[in-house]
């Protein structure tokens, strides 16, 4: 009986795990990165995200050299153009950004920072191949700029080991889980790494990292993970809500 309870899997969509979620990592600004390709796709994504229980969204377009026109100024202009087109959907949508820690990163620290919601957290990532040689200096530059680095999807950096994760947290990084890493979206190795980090209590926040409507629909059609992770995931979702201004925080089962 103990073994069965530990290894029982559930469909997290059917079980309502996303009910009331504030998603803090997704790519919904159309045609600025590898996320939504059009206004129509953004509308479809928002409707699909609402259908699984998501109630608030911080959208986080990429800022790095692959998209040279993206910075805090141009992305704010883009979201200002976008919001009136989405007003009928009545989905609270706030702009953040996902910053690549590369050689051009520090130039963006001189501009108004696109932190997450009403917080000081700045979402950052590294290459999936390897971290920059000056990773810890870049992390310190975030802190010196008055922000808190939040490392996106650390479970996907398979070049890291336990010692590196601990060192990153010791340097001041918070960790953000990609929820669907736990359901095998990125393969078995990433799934196992996500399980390990979650069981060690290293995550503080959770996002969907939604990009395209086809992938999102496929993912939610079969999103299963171990039932024992429900409580820690609800805790992370509750943490997400603290990033929003008090009058914009939504009520979810995680905070009841």
Give a structural overview.
- With 256 residues, the chain is α/β, with parallel strands linked by helices.
- The chain has one domain: Metal-dependent hydrolases (TIM Barrel).
- It is built from nine helices and eleven strands.
- The strands form three sheets. A six-stranded parallel β-sheet has the order 4-6-7-8-9-10. Strands 2-3-5 form a three-stranded parallel β-sheet.
- It starts with a helix and ends in a 15-residue tail after the last helix.
- The C terminus is likely disordered.
Per-chain topology:
Layout: H1 2-7, E1 9-11, E2 22-23, H2 39-51, E3 56-59, E4 62-63, H3 72-86, E5 93-95, E6 98-100, H4 105-108, E7 121-125, H5 135-144, E8 148-152, H6 162-170, E9 174-178, H7 188-199, E10 205-207, H8 213-221, E11 224-226, H9 230-241
Parallel strand pairs: 2-3, 3-5, 4-6, 6-7, 7-8, 8-9, 9-10
Antiparallel strand pairs: 1-11
The CATH architecture comes to Alpha-Beta Barrel
Number of helices: 9
Helix content: 25-40%
CATH topology: TIM Barrel
Q: Could you give a short account of the major beta sheet?
A: 6 strands, parallel
Number of strands: 11
Which residues sit in consecutive blocks of at least 5 with pLDDT less than 50?
249-256
CATH structural class: Alpha Beta
N-to-C SSE series?
HEEHEEHEEHEHEHEHEHEH
* Annotated CATH homologous superfamily: Metal-dependent hydrolases
Distance between the termini: 29 Å
- Mean model confidence by pLDDT: 94
The strand line-up of the biggest sheet is: 4-6-7-8-9-10
Going by helix content, strand content and strand pairing, the class is: alpha/beta
Outline type: globular
What is the domain tally? 1
